[in-house]
Write a structure and sequence with these properties.
Rossmann fold, P-loop_NTPase, 8 strands, 10 helices, single chain, hydrolase, Helicase C-terminal domain-containing protein
């Protein structure tokens, strides 16, 4: 748990802005965290283009940091976590869906991942990931609801070289295993026996759980994440979706970026 928190932001261990009579929020809320640096480049670009954004996190302390960040950047937000009553939840949902001034909605993945319709949003940012991939999928479904008329984009943030590497590999393996069970004809309704005629040896299972049986890592030359890079990330054109559908440009992989207090570098 501690390793996951530090991968988000060191302020999860001590948030000076959460103290009574604490200091004013400053740029260190961004510069102390690689994810916050990346968010600070991506979120303004999305809002400038008229998008409404849902930001999910597993941790209430991280939501507090994101709340402080939005206050620092003078963004009007809505928020739902486990401490919010049912009546307040509905008030926040109605405000976000009907008021154009509210462009960002902060939600805890579990408290905000079920029974909520937020089709006013067309962008989801998973600030961190759940060990159970179904939790993140349910969170994403908040924008994929009846009445959604806009193309939707999902961003998942992860800190390279941390416990999140193992977490994402585990999540991907679980998703591939689900597809394997269904594709292999072993998906049955309750009470039916699973077909055991076809055995899966260890090597075949590994190959199915990992892409081509290997772990891939995408990297390139070091350069600042340019306006062109941001433009590509924010592209909602038909051609962008067509490229993603056919896997053009290794679309199914993560883009690796190296962050620093002086800027954001793609590596």
């Amino acid at each position: 748990m501690q390793l996951r928190l530090v991968a988000n932001s060191p302020h999860n261990f001590f948030n000076p802005w959460g103290l009574e009579n604490g200091p004013e929020i400053d740029e260190s809320i961004v510069t102390a965290s690689g994810k916050m640096l990346l968010l600070d480049r991506l979120l303004p670009a999305l809002l400038k283009r008229g998008h409404k954004v849902l930001i999910f996190s597993q941790f209430k302390t991280q939501l507090d940091i994101l709340h402080d960040y939005c206050t620092f950047r003078k963004l009007k937000i809505c928020r739902i976590d486990g401490s919010v009553s049912q009546a307040e939840r509905q008030e926040h949902i109605d405000a976000f869906n009907s008021d154009s001034d509210f462009k960002v909605f902060l939600l805890s993945t579990r408290a905000g991942g079920q029974g909520i319709n937020l089709t006013a949003a067309d962008t989801v940012i998973l600030f961190d990931s759940d060990w159970n991939p179904q939790q993140d999928l349910q969170a994403q479904d908040r924008v994929h609801r009846l009445g959604q008329t806009k193309p939707v984009v999902i961003f998942r943030l992860a800190t390279k070289g941390t416990v999140e590497d193992s977490l994402l590999l585990s999540v991907e393996a679980k998703r591939r295993l689900e597809k394997l069970v269904i594709k292999g004809g072993q998906f049955r309704t309750m009470g039916q026996k699973i077909n055991k005629d076809e055995d899966l040896d260890e090597e075949k299972l590994k190959a199915l759980l990992l892409k081509d049986g290997h772990v891939y890592e995408q990297s390139g030359s070091a350069e600042i994440l340019s306006d062109k890079d941001v433009e590509i990330l924010c592209d909602r054109s038909d051609s962008a979706y067509e490229r993603a559908a056919i896997g053009d440009g290794n679309a199914d992989s993560f883009k690796v970026v190296e962050t620093a207090a002086t800027g954001i570098l793609a590596s």
